[in-house]
Amino acid sequence: MIKFILIFFGLMLFALNGFGSDNNCLSCHFDFEDEGGSASKFAKDIHSQKGLGCADCHGGDPTLDDMDDVRNSKGFRGVPNHLEVPDFCARCHSDAAYMHDHNPSMPIDQLAKYKTSIHGQRLFSAKDKKVANCVSCHSVHEIGNGQMPYSSTHPSNLPATCAKCHSDKDYMAEYKIPTDQFEKYSSSVHGLALFKRGDLGAPACNDCHGNHGAAPPGVSSLAAVCGVCHALEAELFEKSPHADAFLENDFPMCETCHSNHAIFKPSDNMIGTTESALCTECHAADDGTIGLPTADSILTSLNNLVAAHLNAKQSLDEAILKGMMTTNEEFLLKEVVQSLIQARTLIHSFDMDSVAPKAMEGIAKADTVVLNSAGLIDEYYFRRKGLAVATLIITFLAFMLYRKIRKIEQK
Amino acid sequence: MDGTQNGLIKKGYQWLDDRLHINSLVEYMGGKVVPQHSHSIFYYLGGITLFLFIVQVITGILLLMYYRPGADSAYESVKFIVSEVSFGWLIRSIHSWSANLMVLSAFLHMFTVFFTRAYRKPREMTWYTGMGLLALSMTFGFSGYLLPWNELAFFATRVGTGMAGAMPVVGDYLMVIMRGGEEVTGATIGRFFGLHVAILPLMTTGLLALHMIFIQRQGMSEPMHWAGKKQEDKKYMKFFPNFIYRDALVWLIALNILALLAVIFPDGIGVVHWPLGEKADPFGAPPAVIRPEWYFMFAFQALKMLPAHIWFIEGELFGIIVFGIGGLIWILIPLLDRRANENKRSPMIMAFGTFVVLFMVVMTIVGYLVE
Amino acid sequence: MSDNNSRRNFLSWLTGLGSVAFLGSIIYPAYKFLVPPESGEANVSQVKLPFTRSELESEEKKSKTFKFGRTLGLIVLTGEGELKAMSATCTHLDCTVQHRPDLGIIWCSCHNGRYDLDGKNISGPPPKPLEKYLVNEIKGEIFVSKETV
């Protein structure tokens, strides 16, 4: 009997010790920490979801339940300080064999890239404790997969994550770089596309600056960066006379005219010979280039096309208003818009002989729309004339009938 | 020239009479007369309704040459008719205008018959067949409205069939039968199309034939106040050819008005508006204002205005029951108005009629004023 | 008296003419209505292309756009001589895509979006593939239709 009780209690103790204590850390850290503390956040963390526990990063024996015992246990790493964090994470994330067991397709070059970045250089060389490390962007204990919308590194959240430091004037004061990037970006075409329209194709900070190897793109490489999406414009620009000129003068490509963060929808008036145009900032009438005459004729071509489009739209609207069926003409008008987009893209060649034919193409189509709309409006009036004729015939017949009635009733 | 024309007609008539003995029939019809009095003008309304129906049949058959029922082809085929087919816009526009004018004309015809009490003995069956024809023309309108499968039509049909579903007992079954399913889909187009081009025309032809045979057999109804008149004091006009000529004149004028409306307002006007617009998207957001056709508006508005519950009955159900009873009374008016058979005034019936007209008119106007 | 007669004859002749004109104004539109227009029938879910395979071959980019209902379609002659058709509207921001035989892809010049020849989005901003169409060649004529669900 006693033997049975002893064995029973023994088994109980074993059970209590052996089963519930894979991660004893949580048993204290969960109860004693404040709201929103590490332990409660951890369930959302991707590491937790992959089956890793506290000890896998912080080391020590997770089966122990006394803090002092844990501290003294083998392999205990504790909490890394700001400068130790990159190596702390890289212990696994730069280990090819280890990562292969957990996520074979994930890159392992984050630390190497980080060391080339401005953040990495300042952290390792200057021992700067203010600069970003892994947890500054990825958060700690609730690291999310960057494709999840709640993650701090998801494209729609990333600019705000960078802005946490980069928009803080006081924090950034000693680094002497601007702190208005986020503000400018938010009102730019890319910012509006990403934030307002949810277009994940629009670039966030990392798409131009890199994420782990974060650094501003250099003067020569800016065209390549923008050219990842704006390939045609970049290709045209590279072949244009401006490519060499900009390189010689150390002007950043794309940014010189379009700015880097505050990129807005360009207007046709950026080209031209007036005070407000961009061309006159470098070019002058007697500078020995065909710059200003080219700018002038390109602007004229574009303005002609825009005017032709407006004219076509107005005549088409009139036909629509008159209730005529205009699907074919609406199609054609869309092609005029297409020509306009193409002509505006061709600006980047800075070659009058490229832009002019494209503009003429669009103008020809616009003229067809005007012609067809006029035809539809003519048809509208033709119908009314036909009605007038039919009414005349019917009225005449009605009158004759009326006379006949009068005649037979007079008898 | 007149002489040979008459000779030809005489020969043709003789040829028919030899084979069908139509002489007695022709003589009988030649004796038909039309009473002449202050309200004679209302006699034209039935003819106008008939004329508009004929226009519908002709334009409907023409449209049938190009219309293709089905969720994938209905809208496109109507668009095709209106934009590519020669005079397609005109045929469609006439069809839409004539539909609305026909229903209006039918209502006017019914009300003038009511208030002159032409339904009294011996013309009760003409009234009953007439009520049937009114129901058929409204069904024609309801089924035809869906066929272009545009936004307008889709949502109006969804609301309309939904209301049928609110009827007690048979509601759900009726709604599913009407829609060809739980929702308004291409299946609904199929049913409405079959209804619109086959079932309803067949039924209408039958009822119309009866309606007109009764009229030909019994002649036109005389006003009540002629009951005490002496025969020589009553004025009549011969149907053939006098009234026929006048009818033809009225029909010509109606045709002209129709042509004017069709060309100047091809998409309708004001509250009777049927622009082709966008194709129906069952998953899209409904438009801000969904309206039934104007001849259903009074019922639609009245039902909307009822409170959620009256006594223990659900408001909409109560409204439907009241309309049902009212409709039944209206249909059975010849049975209920015994005083008219005795040539006595029936003020209560007339008051009821006045109330009905006012109710319908006011409710229709309110329906359009209230968004 | 004969004046009256001739006036009556003239009037009845005129009435006859008016009646003929009236009938004509009804029959003429009806007759024209019944003559089928050039496009034959509403182009709903199938369209016959207004060009042949050889005309496609002579195109520099070996592709052409065509109207398909309310949208634009693109038909491409692949290197193996196969005809492939798809929607020509980029799924990113609605620009018109083009065939790039040098790269073997469908390309959108607006933001460098790329699709393979089956319309699948393979690189750049486009979030979805291009809608694919079925191609049938009958007696030298090319018919494009929507894929039935």
How would you explain this protein's 3D organization?
Chain A is an all-alpha fold. Chain A is built from 23 helices and no strands. Chain A has helices spanning 2-19, 25-32, 38-41, 46-49, 54-58, 67-72, 85-93, 96-102, 110-116, 118-124, 134-138, 158-166, 169-172, 181-187, 189-195, 205-209, 222-227, 231-239, 241-249, 255-258, 291-321, 327-346, 352-410. In chain A, α9 (110-116) packs across α10 and α22 (327-346) packs antiparallel against α23 (352-410). Chain B is 68% helix and 4% strand. Chain B has helices at 2-20, 23-30, 43-64, 74-83, 88-115, 124-146, 151-164, 171-179, 186-218, 239-264, 294-305, 315-331, 333-336, 338-341, 347-369; strands at 33-35, 236-238, 268-269, 272-273, 309-310, 313-314. The radius of gyration of chain B is 23 Å and the shape is globular. Chain C is 26% helix and 32% strand. Chain C has helices at residues 2-34, 53-57; strands at residues 46-48, 63-68, 71-77, 83-87, 98-100, 105-108, 113-115, 121-123, 132-138, 141-146. In chain C, the strands form 2 sheets. Chain C has a 6-stranded antiparallel sheet with strand order 1-10-9-4-3-2. In chain C, strands 5-6-7-8 form a 4-stranded antiparallel sheet, with no helix packed on it. Chain C is elongated and about 95 Å long. The model of chain C has no long low-confidence stretch (mean pLDDT 87). Chains A and C meet through α22 and α23 of A and α1 of C.
Question: Which terms would index this structure?
Answer:
heterotrimer; A: 411 residues; mainly alpha; 23 helices; 0% strand; B: 371 residues; two-stranded antiparallel ribbon; 6 strands; 4% strand
Count of individual helical segments of chain B: 15
The class by helix and strand makeup of chain C works out as alpha+beta
Uncertain parts of chain B: none
The chain-level structural class of chain B is mainly alpha
Average pLDDT score of chain C: 87
